[in-house]
Each structure stands twice: as structure tokens, then as C-alpha cells.
């Protein structure tokens, strides 16, 4: 199997995980009566699993290297925490389908901008008509998801 196909399948499965994670976290928020606590628990479980896997694979020293990373590279945790909290809070109000459509639109618009400026050392990619049309189509899907 070509690596690009494997990567596409892997990230599609990641998308399934996000769609399933959202209502699970919303249910946890109802149970604990706090979207913030639910997000913290979700991150705590994820941290515990990933730290355990890293240690099991002999990658424990990599944790120490994080302290010398540039400050902006620490923003990933903040952004992830905001995403999980926003999804937990929004899902009961929008429903899973509309919330995931909104996430997809946000990701596509941000990706177009990040590609254009070559953010975080990535190669610069031009804004093209097909990319803009794709964003508009997802935006249309978001609007339609409310009907």
C-alpha cells in the first residue's frame, strides 16, 4: 500500500475518532456538569495513554527536549484544549453533524491561510480557485446542515 494512501486512511480514521469523541465528551460534560472539567479529563486520559506509549517505546528522553522548544510550539496544547472545550460546549447546541461541518470549515479556511504564508516552516502553496471553491462548498454544507 502506498504511504500516501495509508496516510489518507489513517487520517480519515482520525476524523472518525473526532466525530465519535465529540458526543462522548459532551456526555461526560453532562455527567460532571462542566464542559471544562470534561475537556480536562479527556486530555488527562489522552496524556496518560500517549505518555505511556512513549515510555514503552523508549522515547522518554524526548519529553526533556520539549523544554528547549520555541514558545510558539507549546501552543498546540492550548489549541487542542480550546478545540475540545469548544466542541463539548457546542455539540449539544448544534448537533454532531453541524458541529463537525463547522470544524471542517474552520480547518479548511485556516489551512488555506497557513499554506499561503508557509506557516511553521511548511512550503508555501498558492490560494487557488479550486481551493476557494472547496471552502465555499463546505461552507454551503454547513448552512445546509442546519435544515
TrEMBL record:
Residues passing through the membrane, by range: 35-57, 73-91, 97-117, 129-145
UniProt keyword Zinc present: no
One cellular-component annotation, GO: plasma membrane
InterPro entries referenced in this protein's UniProt entry, alphabetically: YdcZ (IPR006750)
Lineage: Bacteria, Pseudomonadati, Pseudomonadota, Alphaproteobacteria, Rhodobacterales
GO molecular function terms noted in the UniProt entry: glycosyltransferase activity
Name of the protein in question: Amidophosphoribosyltransferase
Keywords: Glycosyltransferase, Membrane, Transferase, Transmembrane, Transmembrane helix
Matches recorded under Pfam families: DMT_YdcZ
Superkingdom of the source species: Bacteria
Amino acid at each position: 500500500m502506498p504511504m500516501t494512501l495509508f496516510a489518507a486512511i489513517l487520517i480519515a480514521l482520525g476524523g472518525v475518532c473526532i466525530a465519535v469523541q465529540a458526543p462522548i465528551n459532551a456526555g461526560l460534560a453532562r455527567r460532571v456538569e462542566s464542559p471544562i472539567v470534561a475537556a480536562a479529563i479527556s486530555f488527562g486520559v489522552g496524556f496518560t495513554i500517549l505518555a505511556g506509549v512513549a515510555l514503552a517505546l523508549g522515547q522518554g528522553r524526548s519529553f526533556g527536549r520539549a523544554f528547549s522548544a520555541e514558545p510558539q510550539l507549546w501552543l498546540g496544547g492550548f489549541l487542542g484544549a480550546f478545540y475540545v472545550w469548544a466542541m463539548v460546549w457546542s455539540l449539544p447546541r448544534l448537533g454532531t453533524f453541524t458541529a463537525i461541518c463547522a470544524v471542517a470549515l474552520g480547518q479548511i479556511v485556516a489551512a488555506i491561510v497557513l499554506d499561503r504564508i508557509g506557516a511553521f516552516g511548511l512550503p508555501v502553496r498558492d490560494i487557488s480557485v479550486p481551493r476557494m471553491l472547496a471552502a465555499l462548498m463546505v461552507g454551503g454544507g454547513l448552512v445546509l446542515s442546519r435544515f
